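Exercise 7b. Backbone tokens:
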């Protein structure tokens, strides 16, 4: 489990998580030699992308848990988004990797006011933080005239949550505060436990101490700002009727109905998010350790960068 979670650690923000039988349909825009294998997370029964798309069309929100930069995983997610739009033309898109302060430039691009190179320059999009799968989804939403939300909190505020706490965030201006969401309380249970386990695994020689506990608490404050900002972004799309709202996010945030799922469902009482997680391994069945991981579990093989 720790190995899987470590794959979700952001290289640019290493102390925080980013946000990691029959087979399903092979995505049309990849030359993968092996098709993804898809299973229902509760029963282990085989499923297909069409099964996921059909259930997505009946859901208010769909949270896709990716392994950042995984070519087949992201191509499969883009194929799924195409299918969702075909079944639910009111669908919308939200992306973890684009932060809220980039929304005006994103809107300008979607409206045709600026071209793609300008959009990429203004929002600092690179091949690393805007891989082909993400771009394909944005382009599909653009061609369909559907909204795309820059879902995440800018790093300056995430960092402030870690270093100075939520009290400092509360002193900022209304214009600043609209760019992030502070949780009313921190998550407990498995999500918090898994977060602490991965933080400790990154410093195996660290001894338990009040200082180490305080450090992990501070990092978890930042993690939860990400969760609640993204959860709020999805909730806003749902409230506007842009459903299903499809969020593409690092899988740690959604596995076992993690922090972003919890945030969305608290902000949208009575709504249940459909979760789909992309596992960077091959399997011809639902592995025991992946039971309950998500509503649908998609095996897309090891990341080429890890081979």
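Sequence design result:
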């Amino acid at each position: 489990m720790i190995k899987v979670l470590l794959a979700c650690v952001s290289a640019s923000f290493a102390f925080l998580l980013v946000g990691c039988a029959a087979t399903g349909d092979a995505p049309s825009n990849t030359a993968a030699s092996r098709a993804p294998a898809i299973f229902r997370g509760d029963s282990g029964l085989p499923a297909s992308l069409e099964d996921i798309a059909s259930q997505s069309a009946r859901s208010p929100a769909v949270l896709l848990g990716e392994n950042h930069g995984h070519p087949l995983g992201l191509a499969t997610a883009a194929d799924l988004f195409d299918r969702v739009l075909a079944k639910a033309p009111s669908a919308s898109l939200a992306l973890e990797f684009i932060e809220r302060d980039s929304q005006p430039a994103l809107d300008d691009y979607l409206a045709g006011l600026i071209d793609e190179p300008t959009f990429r320059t203004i929002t600092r999009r690179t091949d690393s933080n805007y891989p082909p799968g993400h771009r394909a989804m944005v382009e599909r939403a653009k061609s369909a005239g559907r909204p795309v939300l820059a879902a995440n909190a800018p790093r300056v505020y995430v960092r402030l949550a870690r270093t100075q706490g939520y009290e400092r965030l509360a002193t900022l201006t209304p214009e600043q505060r609209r760019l992030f969401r502070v949780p009313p309380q921190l998550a407990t249970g498995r999500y918090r436990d898994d977060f602490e386990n991965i933080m400790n695994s990154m410093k195996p020689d660290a001894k338990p101490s009040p200082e180490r506990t305080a450090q992990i608490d501070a990092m978890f404050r930042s993690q939860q700002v990400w969760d609640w900002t993204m959860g709020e972004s999805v909730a806003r799309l749902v409230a506007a009727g842009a459903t299903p709202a499809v969020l593409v996010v690092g899988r740690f945030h959604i596995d076992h109905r993690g922090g972003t799922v919890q945030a969305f469902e608290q902000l949208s009482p009575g709504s249940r998010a459909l979760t789909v997680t992309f596992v960077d391994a091959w399997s011809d069945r639902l592995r025991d350790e992946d039971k309950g991981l998500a509503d649908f579990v998609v095996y897309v093989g090891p990341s080429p960068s890890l081979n």
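Instructor comment: The domain at 2-306 is CATH 3.40.50.11550 (Rossmann fold). The first strand starts at residue 37 and ends at 40.
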